[in-house]
Amino acid sequence: MVEQAHLRSWRRVLPFLLVLLLAGGCSRIPRIIVLEDPLTAAEHVQLGVAYERKGELDLAQREYERALRKDGTFYRARVNLGNIYLAKKKFGKAREEYLLALELRPGDPEAANNLSWAAILSGEGIDEALARMEAVVSGPGGRQPIFLDTLGVLRLRANRPGEAGEAFALAESLCRRASAVPREGVSGDPPCPEEVLREIEDHRRELRSRFP
């Protein structure tokens, strides 16, 4: 009789033990929480630019990548990500991003210019970059000091010193003219940044040292 009473007691307690065990087991299973990214692709790019200006390249890269996950056709995110790779000397990855940007905007001067610098700094694809920049400079809006300077460097790397000198001279002339105080009643070109003029002068000195 005693054993039967114990058995009946266990039958009443067992369901509660099972519930406690199951509850305890479930409490150890991590909950999967899906958080929605509240920022738009443009906002991620703006945040990336802010990080980039502070020199925090890894954080900037993260934001540009997030922008592209939101919108894979976002030209600005593509170019900016290429710039990060260029700054990190990951020239192959920079080239990939610039080429994707050019697929979005064929012939775009900025993407072509930056792609040219990936070629210049890596020493690979100079001829291809030179042909592309020749087209940019001869196209609408291409006669700008920064693009002419890049063209000059490409010509220099391709051992075409005479043509390089012509590009540098024109780039410096346009830069100085744009930086001059406009005459009364005449609207000048957008000012040429001082650092651009210094780069042009440095490249002209390089040309003279290599080809006296």
Report what the structure shows.
The protein has 212 residues and is mainly alpha-helical. The chain folds into 2 domains: 40-105, Alpha Horseshoe (Serine Threonine Protein Phosphatase 5, Tetratricopeptide repeat); 107-180 and 190-212, Tetratricopeptide repeat domain (Serine Threonine Protein Phosphatase 5, Tetratricopeptide repeat). Helix content is 74%, strand content 0%. The chain is built from 10 helices and no strands. It has helices at 2-27, 41-53, 57-70, 75-87, 91-104, 109-122, 126-138, 145-157, 161-179, 194-210. Helix 2 (41-53) runs antiparallel to helix 3 (57-70), helix 4 packs antiparallel against helix 5 and helix 6 (109-122) runs antiparallel to helix 7. It is elongated and about 75 Å long. The relative contact order is 0.06.
Concise overview:
With 212 residues, the chain is an all-alpha fold.
Which CATH class of the largest domain?
Answer: Mainly Alpha
Q: Residue share in helices?
A: over 70%
Count of structural domains: 2
CATH topology of the largest domain: Serine Threonine Protein Phosphatase 5, Tetratricopeptide repeat
Task: Please state roughly what percent of the residues sit in beta strands, choosing from under 5%, 5-15%, 15-25%, 25-35%, 35-45% or over 45%.
Answer: under 5%
| Fourth CATH level, the homologous superfamily of the largest domain | Tetratricopeptide repeat domain
SSE succession: HHHHHHHHHH
The average pLDDT value, as a whole number, equals: 86
Q: Total number of β-strand segments?
A: 0
Label the overall shape. elongated
Low-confidence stretches: 5-10, 13-24, 183-187
Radius of gyration: 31 Å
User: What's the tally of helices?
Assistant: 10
**Architecture of the largest domain, CATH level 2?**
Alpha Horseshoe
Structural class, by secondary structure, is mainly alpha
Largest sheet: none
Distance between the termini: 116 Å
